[in-house]
Design brief:
Layout (H helix, E strand, L loop, with lengths): L9 H13 L2 H27 L4 H10 L4 H8 L3 H4 L2
Helix pairs in contact: 2-3
Length: about 90
């Protein structure tokens, strides 16, 4: 017995899986890159909405703080998200 927890119908899911299986590794990496960039653009839009006009460096730091832990942000960028807020 299979339990479906997706909102995608089994027929469409089969088409998607078949398509992914036919992709070359390069095509799969390109798709992952495109999706990652899309997620980053959405995150930047939220940051811009939340903080308004801020310097590009601060935008990038706030974006990085969504993915990196506090210790890494301090060590690598000398920027503490708990002090600056994220």
């Amino acid at each position: 017995m299979t339990v479906q927890i997706s909102d995608t119908s089994p027929d469409i899911e089969e088409i998607l899986v078949t398509g992914y299986r036919r992709m070359t590794p390069q095509q799969k990496l390109k798709r992952v890159d495109e999706l990652t960039k899309a997620v980053q653009q959405l995150a930047l839009a939220r940051i811009r909405q939340q903080y308004g006009k801020i310097p590009e460096r601060e935008e990038r730091l706030r974006l990085a703080a969504l993915w990196l832990d506090r210790e890494t942000m301090i060590k690598v960028f000398n920027w503490d998200p708990e002090v600056k807020g994220y």
